[in-house]
Amino acid sequence: MVRFVLDGETVELADVDAADTLLDHLRYRIGRTGTKEGCAEGDCGACTVLVGTLDQAGEALVWRAVNACIVLLPMLHGKALLTVESLKMNPLQACMAANGSSQCGFCTPGFVMSLHGRAIGAVGSDLPAADVIAGNLCRCTGYGPILAAAAAVPTLPRDDAATLAALRAIADRQTIAGGRDGRRWFIPRTAAALADLLARHPGARLVAGATDVGLWVTKRLQSLDTAIFVGDIADLDTIDETATGLTIGAAVRYADAHAAMARLHPDLGELVRRIGGLQVRNAGTVGGNIANGSPIGDGPPALIALGATLTLRSARGRRTLPLEDYFLAYGKQDRAADEFVESVTIMRPKPGDIVLIGKLSRRFDSDISAVCGAFRLEMDGNRIAAASVAFGGMAATPCRARRCEAALTGQRLDPATIGQAAAALREDFSPLDDVRGSAAYRLQAATALLWRLYHRQQGAAVSVLEYADG
Asked: Where are the alpha helices (DSSP H) in 363-435?
């Protein structure tokens, strides 16, 4: 049984499959057709809705804008939901209607929900309006009137009392189970319960934010025979920030990790800001981005360069390994069938370390990397005592550039050293040609990031492309 609160009223759904999407439920089961299907992959924002959860104290609601097309229906259990129909006609909508924010109108409900979330203090409401709607695409009007409406209606009142009461009434601390047609799903509430479930169902599909698995459902039309939803495990949703670094639980969403990661290093914060749109960061987790082993995941190259370690857990115990050792080959990670990612620990750069993290993509906002490069140089005066260089998009896994590191280590930080390291970097990788970039482009872009590190260290504000040829 899936139970959630819609407009203050409790909804109970039986016979729910793990691969049922929230978008399909809204449009085809209850007729809330204001939520649109544009891309069905979390890219356009036309299906944006607001999902609310109780904070860990159970005293307040935390609202998030998410893409309904890749929210799997069991993930809504124990949460609150608002759609565009929930808003009636509020001042934000009235302003957008009056100032020409809508032309064909298809994308408008998604924009309304994203900006409504900002106006009521949802996660990410401290960001500029342009960042909040970076995950919403409009092909008719441009964004000027939409941003003007956001500026004209910066805040709106909210009354969560009825929703809070309804959520408290359905709150539970036990593992929830459901399924249909022989397919099963589970929602554990603790890491220990997750470990026990995996011991009984090794190899079950773990689903955190579904920003990847959701596409398997909507694009590949895959079913999920046994799924375990891990996004609501409280003891995996923690951030421990110390003088030496960060330990981030696997269920921490990128939107929640952003501030702490930015304090670790500004480049890391900027990288996180560009991981998808806000809706994607509100769903996707740090642990999920690592666990799925994608060669173009944005987080792993930066974390590898910063010396991160990964903790895996099972009913048999825990083990910790360098993050770089987790990625074995394309589609293969060092994780047993009964293990899950529990946390990642990221070392804080030392005073004097030089760090650059750069992401190159075909579209600046809300796009997948063509190349993501990260560099950390430990300095001894003007000499490089040690170098850690890692890339995504250059090989079958996120991995270090060992030849480049060797060319940097022990040398002075000067153009000659950078030139030698750039040549070595071209020997580290043989990237593929694909829709995001050719092999030649990727090699050129990777060396451009290396040159960017050098010129930024000299105090220059430069474009990556300006130094593409070294």
From this structure: 402-408, 415-428
Strand (E) or helix (H) holding 311: strand 309-314
Nearest to 369 by CA among 295, 318, 463, 263: 295
What's the pLDDT tens digit per position in 30-84? 999 999 999 999 999 999 999 999 998 888 999 999 999 999 999 999 999 999 9
pLDDT in tens, 368-422: 889 999 999 999 999 999 999 999 999 999 999 999 999 999 999 999 999 999 9
Q: Please report, for the chain, the start and end positions of each structural domain, with discontinuous segments joined by +.
A: 2-166, 174-229, 234-347, 354-467
Alpha helices (H) in 274-414, listed in sequence order: 278-281, 286-291, 299-305, 323-326, 402-408
Q: In angstroms, rounded to a whole number, what is the distance separating the alpha carbons of residues 347 and 358?
A: 18
User: 2-6 and 80-82 as β-strands: parallel, antiparallel, unpaired?
Assistant: parallel
Q: What would the CATH number be for the domain defined by 174-229?
A: 3.30.43.10
Q: Cβ contacts of residue 318 below 8 Å, gap of 6+?
A: 311, 312, 342
The CATH homologous superfamily for domain 2-166 is Beta-grasp domain (3.10.20.30)
Residues 262 and 446: their CA atoms lie apart, in Å, by 23
Distances (CA, A) of 425 to 275, 413, 415, 420: 25, 16, 15, 9
Contact assessment for residue 415 and residue 440, using Cβ atoms and an 8 Å cutoff: no
Length of the chain: 470
- At residue 411, the 3 state secondary structure works out as coil
